[in-house]
Design a protein that fits this description.
The structure holds 2 protein chains of 2 kinds. By secondary structure, chain A is of the alpha+beta class. Chain A contains 5 helices and 5 strands. Chain A folds into 2 domains: about 80 residues, Beta-grasp domain (Ubiquitin-like (UB roll)), CATH 3.10.20; about 70 residues, DNA polymerase, domain 1. Helix content of chain A is about 30%, strand content about 15%. In chain A, strands 2-1-5-3-4 form a 5-stranded mixed sheet, sandwiched between helices. By secondary structure, chain B is of the alpha+beta class. Chain B has 2 domains: about 170 residues, 2-Layer Sandwich (Uridine Diphospho-n-acetylenolpyruvylglucosamine Reductase, domain 3), CATH 3.30.465.10; about 90 residues, Enolase-like, domain 1, CATH 3.30.390.50. In chain B, α9 crosses α10. In chain B, the strands form 4 sheets. In chain B, strands 4-5-10-6-7 form a 5-stranded antiparallel sheet. Chain B has a 4-stranded antiparallel sheet with strand order 11-12-13-14. The chains are: A alpha+beta, B alpha+beta. Chains A and B meet through β4 and α3 of A and β1, α2 and α6 of B. Bound molecules: flavin-adenine dinucleotide (FAD) and FE2/S2 (inorganic) cluster (FES) (2 copies).
Chain lengths: ~160, ~280
């Protein structure tokens, strides 16, 4: 299959890559660009471990073709911290022990950030529904919800 | 597999028609990419329609709405006008998958994929929505109900693509609702589903209604809505509606739902969706 050149922006940086027409964005990120934060849990849209945003929309990068992101703005987990300074969500996930094996964590952080950009004060139920497509086999979810809520409170300036 | 982005609907259509091998439209890709991954299909050509001008836009039209075929369901949900007029259509579309899937999936893709359990389809059929189809022999407008042909099959000819979905003008004192049964609360495929769209007279008598069922036949089916027309949705009318819904069921029998369960559930969902639509039409929250 003939590779196609694609120009895109990832975490604010212009990026160019070659990929085959059938190659998922997730494989491009991980195998071609060394951005291994997004994980492949299923490859079929069920687990959310591969979550990124494309033009501000939360998507599963396993269900986007690399060739589709020509000219798009992509945000991945690698763009979340600023150098050594963690994003409040990242800090609260550590503080609340909202992860164990960590495979689901990058996807959940990206998804939670996208929620808080749309809704700074979600209810627990809204957080659970928003994250329904992010599976975690370790934590039982309660700590994830708590971590999102305490990060949200900090981001609202309530702490 | 070759990939192309079409600049116009006509260009997409001619490329699809000219491909001697297997050709597929790419909208949100939430069905197509899963099928690629599973090796279920090996297309020679994939035509991305998202760059066609206007195909990602929602516009007011003849008192109703034109929803471009590549409008993602997350965008649809954020459109206050469509949601106010056709809450049942929007709630059906929004039951599809997760937030991530919503960010990409389209109602037109849901329709053209041809699943009998497609969540956006019963609401569109109950609303009596149409689609514009552009193909090698020109453009036609078709009822949504006439697109599905059976599991995984549609009545679209080679080279035909859906460019827009048209929701009619909402009548005064009318509304709609969609309900599905799944064994969990999120991320599952309907075992049975029902959409009801109805219009009331000033005294609350139903003057028009359409009831569409999903996941209980090889394709979406209409139930006899005359069972509730002329009534104020009293218990007898609701019982008659449930019976009418059961009567048109012809479901599969599998581990997710037996024939008996799917049939009786379709009746229950039709009743409940009718009550929700009725209250919405009356302006009761
Ligand atoms: C995790 C997950 C959960 C899901 N949950 C649900 C659910 O709860 N309910 C449900 O109904 N579905 C569900 N789906 C299936 C899928 O998301 C929907 O069917 C979706 O609406 C498909 O839209 P799309 O734009 O992504 O379609 P695509 O994958 O782009 O296309 C689907 C098919 O339709 C054709 N097509 C697309 N657009 C057009 C067009 N404009 N003209 C002609 N042909 C076209 C394509 O060639 C392809 O064959 C789920 C999928 C995933 C991955
Ligand atoms: S890897 Fe993309 S959703 Fe599981
Ligand atoms: S921490 Fe292991 S899957 Fe979530």
């Amino acid at each position: 299959m003939k590779s196609i050149p694609v120009s895109t922006t990832i975490n604010g940086d212009p990026v160019e890559f070659l990929c085959t027409p059938d190659e998922p964005l997730l494989d491009v990120l991980r195998n071609r660009l060394g951005l291994t934060g997004a994980k492949e849990g299923c490859g079929t849209g069920d687990c959310g471990a591969c979550s990124v945003t494309v033009n501000g929309r939360l998507v599963c990068s396993c269900l986007v073709l690399g060739v589709e992101v020509e000219g798009a703005q992509i945000e991945t987990i690698e763009g979340m911290a600023h150098g050594e300074t963690l994003h409040p969500l990242q800090r609260h996930f550590i503080e609340k022990a909202a992860l164990q094996c960590g495979v689901c964590t990058p996807g959940i952080l990206v998804a939670a950030k996208s929620l808080l950009e749309k809704n700074a004060s979600p209810t627990d139920e809204e957080v659970r529904y928003w994250l329904a497509g992010n599976l975690c086999r370790c934590t039982g979810y309660d700590k994830i919800i708590e971590a999102v809520q305490s990060a949200a409170a900090e981001m609202r300036g309530e702490v | 597999m070759r990939y192309m982005t079409a600049e116009t609907a006509e260009a997409a259509s001619s490329a699809l028609a000219a491909e001697p091998g297997l050709a597929r439209v790419l909208a949100g890709g939430t069905d197509l990419l899963v099928q690629l991954k599973a090796g279920m299909i090996r297309p020679d050509l994939v035509v991305d329609i998202k760059k066609i001008p206007g195909i990602r836009e929602i516009t007011a039209e003849n008192g109703g709405w034109r929803i471009g075929a590549a409008v993602a369901n997350a965008e649809l949900k954020e459109h206050p006008g469509v949601k106010a007029d056709w809450p049942g259509v929007v709630e059906g579309a929004n039951l599809i998958g997760s937030t991530q899937v919503q960010g990409r999936c389209t109602m037109a893709g849901n329709l053209c994929n041809g699943s009998p359990a497609a969540d956006a389809v019963p609401g569109l059929v109950a609303a009596d929505a149409s689609v514009t189809v552009v193909g090698p022999s020109g453009t036609r407008v078709v009822k949504v109900a006439d697109i599905p042909a059976g599991p995984g099959r549609t009545t679209l000819a080679k080279g035909e693509i859906v460019t827009a979905i048209h929701l009619p003008a909402k009548a005064a004192r009318s509304s709609d609702a969609y309900l599905r049964f799944i064994p969990r609360t999120e991320m599952d495929i309907a075992v049975a589903a029902a959409a009801v769209s109805l219009t009331l007279s000033e005294d609350g008598t139903i003057t028009a209604a359409r009831v569409a069922l999903g996941a209980v036949a090889p394709k979406v089916v209409l139930a006899d809505a005359s069972t509730i027309i002329g009534t104020k949705l009293d218990d007898a009318a609701l019982a008659a509606l449930a019976k009418a819904a059961e009567a048109v069921c012809n479901p599969i029998d599998d581990k997710r739902g037996t024939i008996e369960f799917r049939t009786s559930t379709a009746g229950v969902l039709a009743r409940r969706a009718a009550v929700i639509a009725y209250n919405r039409a009356k302006g009761v929250k």
